[in-house]
User: Which sequence fits this backbone?
């Protein structure tokens, strides 16, 4: 009886291993991810004779295995932002199953981000009312841009169009996220300049870089700083 149990256990034994690949997002259907034959050091035709097949985790099958060539191919274009949002790493998991003997390989495919999104501000134009008598170095918080990409492809810098009255200050908060401020560097005079237009630009770190802009329209409010004249 002990021998029977031992033999039964040996027949039920499953060989398991893990293999990892990576592929950029947005590749078209049929793009080659890797060759499974080479990765697993299998003989030509072995995938076919052992009835190899992929089992995807989830309902959508993002990849296709050609059991004659061993090529692992993209089944449909993958959008990393739709699939994983800001989560990193973005992983798709599958199992490669071979029979006679039964072997199961866990396949982990990392979807790499590409710079396919430009920074965006919520509005194209922002209006700001500023009294002309405010002191130098007064700051005005500005709304950040958003970028669906991650890492180096996300927003890396902000710039402000050249002007004599304001400069831009970027500060890191406790969560290491940016806060941006408009800082007054020269006194405003409504009688000389009642309105001022600036361009705030967000720049990502991709190659090539992508940018997003917002128009800042400053309305200088009057202060009673002039005497009546006859």
Assistant:
């Amino acid at each position: 009886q002990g021998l029977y149990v031992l033999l039964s256990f040996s027949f039920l034994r499953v060989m398991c291993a893990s293999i990892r690949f990576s592929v950029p997002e947005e590749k078209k259907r049929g793009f080659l991810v890797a060759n499974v034959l080479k990765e697993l050091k299998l003989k030509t035709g072995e995938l076919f004779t052992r009835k190899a097949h992929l089992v995807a985790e989830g309902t959508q099958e993002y990849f296709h295995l050609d059991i004659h060539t061993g090529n692992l191919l993209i089944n449909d274009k993958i959008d990393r932002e739709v699939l994983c949002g800001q989560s990193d790493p973005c992983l798709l998991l599958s199992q490669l199953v071979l029979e006679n003997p039964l072997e199961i390989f866990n396949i982990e495919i990392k979807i790499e981000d590409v710079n396919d999104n430009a920074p965006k501000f919520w509005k194209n134009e922002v209006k700001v009312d500023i009294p002309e008598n405010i002191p130098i170095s007064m700051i005005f918080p500005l709304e950040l841009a958003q970028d669906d990409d991650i890492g180096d492809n996300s927003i890396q810098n902000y710039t402000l169009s050249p002007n004599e009255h304001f400069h831009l200050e970027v500060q890191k908060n406790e969560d290491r996220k940016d806060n941006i401020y408009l800082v007054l560097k020269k006194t405003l005079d409504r009688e000389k300049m009642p309105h001022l237009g600036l361009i705030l630009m967000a720049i990502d770190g991709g190659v090539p870089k992508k940018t997003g802009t917002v128009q800042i329209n400053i309305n200088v409010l009057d202060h009673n700083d002039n005497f009546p004249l006859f």
Q: What stands out?
A: The mean pLDDT is 88. The helical segments are 2-12, 36-40, 46-49, 80-84. The two ends are 120 Å apart (CA to CA). The chain has two domains: 19-112, 125-221.
